[in-house]
Each structure stands twice: as structure tokens, then as C-alpha cells.
């Protein structure tokens, strides 16, 4: 029998991943139903791909076509808006740094609503929130000073923090997006949320 | 309103794919529930990977470890036996040719039971049914003449048939295993059988 507080669900993702967008709309509710905190962990898949030798599906023949078809089908099923960005994949360095800067400065809730805002801008409206200006333009960021965002993105502690989060993810086996870890159990893909749900409900099998 | 006979479900797979093994245990029942024929289509992923630039997950750092964990977890959930083969991936050329030879000679039912036998030998018992001798040793093949199997695997019509099936699959967007096509709608992965099920139940969305 387990005692003590329940372990959180870690939700690793790259803003450039459409399946992470699909998962982002469901993961908090899933966590709530199981009484689990969900820790959002934006990472950079580019760094991970260097280890695995993978590359973005949207840059691969045949897989790109399926991805567009499948993501649209999943978005329709979930009732989520979807507008294909002109350029993919997004360079998610800046929004990831802004997220971690907000977390480092004890604004975790703001970091999460900003992440949701980035996902909605990129996948729901087809925008490219990959510059300081574009991120500062998101409604969540309206209370923030653009100069301060810019400075944060250039600061060594923020750069180091993102790098540390990515390295930690890789060291724990995270190689894709979205990727979930709870009590060491890994689940890769938005299509595995039902498995994660069942795992938490049953205690595993 | 649709009339006429319902389109079959095409089930594309490589015997070397553990997720195809998982799907093979469920797809016929799914087809039956929807009154659909299921056409089994063994292909060679090697030929597909040349187009996409992908390679087997079991040969990629990090993904290999996840695959072993995830396949074992899925097999437990499904109550399927799983013994990891010593060498992966299997060279599935011979069993694929034997399958298509049986189909070409109007023994489709035998082809399917042989395919199930190949999956069970490889993934359920960890064997390597990749030679004529090993395939002839499978219980399904006991009524067949090993010399005849060997001759079939070397014959131009059988080689051509497998090549044609693979080329046709690629031309219709099949890039992974298992991969399902029904009325032009593609579903990739054993974890999408629930989606395929819902698609057939609802007529799509």
C-alpha cells in the first residue's frame, strides 16, 4: 500500500509538436481526475534527435502526409481548432526559455497559461510564436515587459535551466513529444493518454 | 447512404514488427464485429524505410529501450505471450514470400494461419522463422512440402508478387507497421485500433 503524497505526472513536450498540442488540451484534466499534479516540461526535440538519430515526422516523405491527415482527424475528434502553420517545425527555443524563466521566477501558473497560449497561437491559429516579439504579443504575456523577456532569453541562468531540463529528460529516456513520466513509467504519444489514464486508475499491470 | 458490399480492412505489416504481432491478435475480431473482411498484407519495411529515411525503432538509441518496455506492457495487458528474440529485426523476406505464394495458389486461409504461426513463433516464443527450413517447421506448414516452399520462394512470380504488394502499399501511403487502410482512411500503429473501431462504428468524423 502506498503512502505519502502521490507523484506528479511529468508532461514533456516541444511546442513544435502537433501531438503535444492535442495532449496539452487533455492532460490537466486527466491529472485532476487522479489527484495528480501535472508538471509541464517544454524541451527541444532537436537536442533529443541528435541522440536518437530521428528527425521531425513533418520533414519525412509519406509521414508528413499522414501526420497532416491524422492530426486534423484527432483535432476534429477533440473539437480543437487547427490551422496549419506556414512553416514547420517551429523553432521553439524562445517560448521554451520564456516558460522556464517564468517557472524560475516562481510564476508557474503564468508559465502554464503562456504555454497554452503558445500552443493555441501556433496550432490553433497557424502563427509562429518563435521570436521574443511574437511571444510578448501573446495575451498571456501582456503583463510582462518585452525588454525583460528579451533579457531573460539571453541570460545564462535561463539558458542553463532549459539545457538542464533537456539533459535530464534525455537521461530519463524521453525521446519524443508528448512524453509522460509518472513514477518512472513512460508513455509516448498523445494516443497513449488512455493507457496513462488506465495505468493511474488501476495502479499498473 | 452507402450501398453494395462493404470495403475490406487492409492490414499491412512486417513480421519483424512487435506492434504488428500485438495488432494481429485483435484485427480479425475487430473486422468481424463490423462485418468487414480483413486482408492481411505482409510487406517489407526495409523497402519502405528507403523512401522515408526511417529505420527500425529497435536499432535506435532510447527508442529501443522504450519499445521493449512498451511492447511488454502491451502484451501483458492483452494476455499475449512474449519472448524477446535474440536477434532483431527478423529478416521477414521468406515468411512474406511464403504467405503470398499461398495466397497466389488460392490458399488464403492457410496463408493467414501461417502468418499467425510466424508471429507466435517469433514474438511468442522468441524463434527466428526467417529461413525456408524454419518456416517449413511451423505446424501450419506441416502439410506442405519443404522443397516446394523453397522452390516457391525462389520463383519469379512469387518474388514479383511481394514486390508488387510492397510497391502498392508505398504508393498508397503505407510507411509503418502495423498500418490499416479502409475506404482510403489510414491508421498507423497498434494503438490506433480503438480509433479504427470507432471510425467504423460511426462512419467517420
Order of helices and strands of chain A: EHHEHHHHHHHEEH
Helix content of chain A: 40-55%
Strand order of the largest sheet of chain A: 2-1-3-4
Give the overall shape of chain A.
globular
Rg of chain A computed from alpha carbons, rounded to a whole number of angstroms = 17 Å
What oligomeric arrangement do these chains adopt?
A: homodimer
Proportion of residues in β-strands of chain A: 5-15%
What characteristics describe this protein?
homodimer, 205 residues, alpha+beta, four-stranded mixed β-sheet, 10 helices, 9% strand
Summarize the structure.
Chain A has 205 residues and is α+β, with helices and mostly antiparallel strands.
Question: Could you give the topology of this structure?
Answer:
The structure is a homodimer of 205-residue chains.
Chain A: E1 9-13, H1 18-24, H2 27-33, E2 38-42, H3 45-52, H4 63-78, H5 93-104, H6 108-125, H7 132-137, H8 146-154, H9 156-171, E3 179-182, E4 185-188, H10 193-202
Parallel strand pairs in A: 1-2
Antiparallel strand pairs in A: 1-3, 3-4
Helix pairs in contact in A: 1-6, 5-6, 5-9
Amino acid at each position: 500500500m502506498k503512502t505519502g503524497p502521490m507523484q506528479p505526472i511529468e508532461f514533456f513536450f516541444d511546442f513544435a509538436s502537433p501531438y503535444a498540442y492535442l495532449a496539452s488540451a487533455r492532460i490537466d484534466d486527466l491529472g485532476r481526475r487522479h489527484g495528480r499534479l501535472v508538471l509541464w516540461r517544454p524541451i527541444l526535440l532537436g537536442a533529443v534527435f541528435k541522440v536518437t538519430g530521428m528527425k521531425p515526422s513533418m520533414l519525412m516523405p509519406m509521414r508528413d502526409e499522414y501526420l497532416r491527415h491524422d492530426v486534423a482527424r484527432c483535432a476534429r475528434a477533440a473539437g480543437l481548432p487547427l490551422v496549419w502553420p506556414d512553416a514547420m517545425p517551429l523553432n521553439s527555443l524562445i517560448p521554451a526559455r520564456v516558460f522556464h524563466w517564468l517557472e524560475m521566477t516562481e510564476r508557474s501558473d503564468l508559465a502554464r497559461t503562456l504555454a497554452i497560449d503558445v500552443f493555441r497561437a501556433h496550432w490553433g491559429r497557424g502563427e509562429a510564436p518563435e521570436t521574443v516579439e511574437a511571444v510578448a504579443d501573446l495575451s498571456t504575456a501582456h503583463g510582462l515587459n518585452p525588454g525583460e523577456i528579451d533579457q531573460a532569453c539571453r541570460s545564462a541562468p535561463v539558458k542553463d535551466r532549459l539545457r538542464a531540463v533537456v539533459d535530464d529528460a534525455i537521461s530519463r529516456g524521453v525521446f519524443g513529444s508528448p512524453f509522460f513520466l509518472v513514477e518512472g513509467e513512460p508513455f509516448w504519444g498523445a494516443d497513449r493518454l488512455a493507457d496513462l489514464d488506465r495505468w493511474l486508475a488501476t495502479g499498473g499491470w
